[in-house]
Specification:
Keywords: Amino-acid biosynthesis, Histidine biosynthesis, Hydrolase. α6 packs across α7 and α7 runs parallel beside α9. About 45% of the residues lie in helices and about 15% in strands. The protein has about 290 residues and is α/β, with parallel strands linked by helices. The longest helix is centred in the N-terminal third of the chain and has 21 residues.
Length: about 290
């Protein structure tokens, strides 16, 4: 029995989607170097630093960016500086941790072509493809904006359908190596288990998962939802089981926005993935 225990491999601590820092993101905290050294102190094998892409235009500025007096060009300049800084830190700490210099792409009007141009310019190690907007409305900022998006979609089921259709377009056009927080659309919906099972929604979920499998992409198992009071990470259990059935890799992501949230709930995420039956030999997208 003692030998069996010794032979059990403990999964590496990793984050496929994290590392937002106050240095390069107005709603995060701490410097990027402080974030990376926090990953090292907590024993992470590797981490993907996935800063948000800059907005296409000032219409898509977030309230914190407006409050800071920033415009599109300011944030673009900051983003270019982010990639340069991340590359330097990647090299500086190469003996302690493997860092991926990546970014998080968006799905609002004009975002796909802009993300494609950014990829050519900064040559990231990979991108995380996320949907934070439906009808160009940020659905994860407030309940009021979420309700506005519901109205624009003609109801909650329509909103789910529009979200997963946007995600499908992103998957096909950008082919991001990682799909960020697959079912973020449930963020302000206490009845999401019911709505995820609705035939119009579940059909789209299956379609998207099958495309993810076809393209050999990875799902971000995003545990930040737990930090915000959710009962389970993104992805919810029924969707996660479908991903397992399709043999789609799911890798934990802390979606950290400061030193305090580096690695937060990662162990819980790993435990869920282990119990569900996922392979915990985590694949770094750029390896």
């Amino acid at each position: 029995m003692e030998n069996q225990i010794k032979n059990i491999k403990i999964p590496d601590l990793v984050s496929i989607h994290g590392g937002h820092s106050g240095q390069f993101c107005s709603h995060a905290e701490n410097t990027l170097e402080e974030i990376i050294t926090a990953y090292i102190k907590k024993g992470f094998k590797w981490a993907g630093i996935t800063e948000h892409m800059p907005p296409v235009n000032d219409k898509f500025l977030y309230p914190d960016e407006i409050k800071a007096g920033l415009n599109k060009q300011d944030i673009l300049d900051r983003f270019i500086n982010y990639m340069k800084t991340c590359r330097k830190l990647q090299e500086k700490y190469a003996l302690s941790i493997k860092i991926a210099a990546a970014f998080e792409a968006e799905s609002y009007t004009g975002a796909f072509s802009f993300a494609a141009s950014l990829i050519k310019i900064v040559k990231p190690d990979y991108i995380v493809g996320s949907v934070h907007h439906v009808h160009d409305i940020p659905i994860d900022v407030s309940k009021d904006l979420y309700e506005k998006a519901i109205h624009m979609s003609g109801g909650i089921i329509g909103l789910y359908c529009d979200y997963f259709d946007l995600q499908y377009g992103m998957i096909n056009i950008l082919k991001p190596q990682v799909i960020g927080h697959f079912d973020l659309i449930r963020i302000f919906d206490p009845k999401y288990p019911l709505h995820l099972r609705h035939p119009r929604v579940s059909g789209r979920i299956r379609r998207n998962l099958e495309k993810i499998k076809e393209l050999d992409l990875i799902l971000d198992f995003n545990v930040r939802a737990l930090l915000k009071g959710a009962d389970e990470p993104y992805i919810s259990a029924p969707v996660l089981l479908q991903a397992l059935e399709l043999d789609i890799p799911a890798v934990p992501g802390d979606d950290s926005h400061g030193v305090d949230s580096v690695g937060k709930n990662i162990e819980k995420g790993i435990s869920i993935l282990q119990k569900t039956g996922f392979n915990t030999g985590w694949k770094l997208p750029c390896s």
